[in-house]
Amino acid sequence: MWRHEVYCGVFDLELLRQAMIAVLPAGTDPDPGVPQTELVLSGQSAMFALVLDDEGRPLEDTSVISACAWATGRLFDPGPSTPGWLDGFEELDDAFGGAIDELTATAIPYGPTAPAAGTAYERWPGSEGAAGAPGADGGGWQRLLAEILGGAAVGAVGALFGEVAGAALQGAAEPLVRRAADWVAARRPAEEQVDSGRPDGTGGVPERASADGPDASAEAEYGAGAGPRALGFADLVALTAQIADLCGVRDHLRPQVVRVRSRLVHRPRDPRTKVAATPPFLNSLLPPDLARVSAAVGKDIGPALEAYLTELDAVDVGARTDVRRERGVVLEGVAPDLVPAGRWPAPARFPLALSQQFAVDRMLADRAGTEGGMFSVNGPPGTGKTTMLRDLVAALVVERAAVLATFDRPSQAFTGPAWRGKDRQGRHARFVSRLDPRLTGFEIVVTSSNNGAVENITAELPGIGALGEYWQAGTDHFSDLASALLGGPAWGLVAAVLGNKANRKEFGDRFWWGRLPEKETDARKAAELPPLRGMREVLSDWIPPKPQPGGRGPVTPADEVAAAAAGPARPVPSWTDAVVAFRTAQAEVERLRAGRARLAGALAAVESPWPGSGSRTWKPPCPGPTSRSPPPLRSWTGPPPPLPAPGPPPRRPRPDTGRPPSTYRGPARSWPPPARTCRPPVNWPRTTAST
């Protein structure tokens, strides 16, 4: 079916730049030293946007007003020098969504009409003083549109139908801030207006046409339960003019273009399924979050955000350590007792590099016993940041598993009363059990201004290629579901794309319900794969069946038929066996860690300088050319061994005769012999300070 993204009031961004330059003090160069030809701002934006279904009806929660256009109007009225000059956008955005709902719930008989004075829309905020404006008696479209939107909308639609006099209504007599505030107040629900203390309890909204007025028959077509009507071109023109008037940018941005982008989407199988869509990307996603951060500063915002917001002058630079100079700090940071118990199932011959292991160990050490913190890892592309992150994920998974292994049964992971409520439609009951606090704090949210950086992680971690060959055959963590989410072969359900509403909905359909698009369902059938089983179905199989009275099996023929139809019960994983297996692996890890800790201690003792002397290194003699193993480690304590006294070289047998040394005198040798550079054969293992 078709889906339409509608962008109304399209304007050039260069007009926006010119508007910002216009409010600068005279003689100010906005971009010193930049040629004028490079200052032209390309691209376009729009006053507002929304998404329509295949019948032209707006989809819920898809209408967006341009914050950029709003701020442009505020540059001129009331101006940046006025306190709170940018206040009110959120209220306008909410009111705009309410106006669309009201507009689509009312049948408006658009059409050219004869001008008439004294109509209701003249009393609408922003339309005062517009003499000679067209109107209609009773319940004409002008009156209805004025009640729902305002005088600017009526004027624009009147001009669309050739009523040139109506264009005068696009002007504004009131200040912009007051005009917008009045319009927002008029869009509030009736119960809010009564609470606001207005004497008449109406909030200044003109009365609607009576039920027996000229539009009674038209409104009857959209009675209760009929749903919203489709938006027409006249509605879009009216909305564009009204928003441009409220933002005060009609002359600055000249938003007069309506653009529609249509594309085909899959129709839901169940006609009762609520259709959802992602709102058009018209505004930045950052301002709401920045506003929350600004309001939370000075309160308990957490150590990570507090560290990130710390002023540079407040940072104790003297407490920093340059790990490139003080290599001992790095070696101490990768000591065996700091290495996490979990590691990504990668080939053992490819351990983390020294800097990667140091980063993982340091992050986990700084996090232990605290509420978290911030640790920055920088590096060019391809330097192993994602590889490092994989080991961090593995470490956190094992830490959480260690907590789970302390429970005698899975139900002990949930504590306290569960939250109970209803879904968004208010039709179905929902409850969420409270998790034991010891199981929280292991979550990872990957965010970036670059979508590609996030996709590298969410697509790489679950993929089967992320595992070493040794692990690929036996590792399975809901691999069927993970493959359905990834769109390719996957080994485990460890990452998912949840950035926007559409991604979250798709995740819920696939992960929880096991719903796939028709094309993927047909592909599974062609590959002779069973239908995808969502997590809801998987967990349902693990719930023990209710015992029959007396502890017996099926007692009626109907029960026997139902049991036969259900087929053999799927095996339920044993919690006890899983805990025993984990504790066995955990004990083996600690055994290996203890052995490496003893070895690290011995190495530290060997390499320590002796008292009263500087650090010295004694290189053992080079092995012979036929050696197959590296030379043994030679260590001692105390002073270094004395060098041999100078003297004549020892006599050696002649190689070709084998006669005793006394009968052979070779050429004179110098003493001590010259130093030789010793390089081990290439087949020796080359290792660094690994643990």
UniProtKB/TrEMBL annotation:
Residue stretches of biased makeup (Pro residues): 620-650
Composition bias type Low complexity, residue spans: 554-570
Signal sequence interval, chain numbering: none
Skewed-composition ranges (Basic and acidic residues): 188-198
Gene3D superfamilies per record: P-loop containing nucleotide triphosphate hydrolases (3.40.50.300)
SUPFAM superfamilies: P-loop containing nucleoside triphosphate hydrolases (SSF52540)
Region of interest called Disordered, as start-end residue ranges on this chain: 187-221, 543-570, 607-691
Stored InterPro entries: P-loop_NTPase (IPR027417)
Protein's recorded name: Uncharacterized protein
Species of origin: Streptomyces caledonius
UniProt lineage: Bacteria, Bacillati, Actinomycetota, Actinomycetes, Kitasatosporales
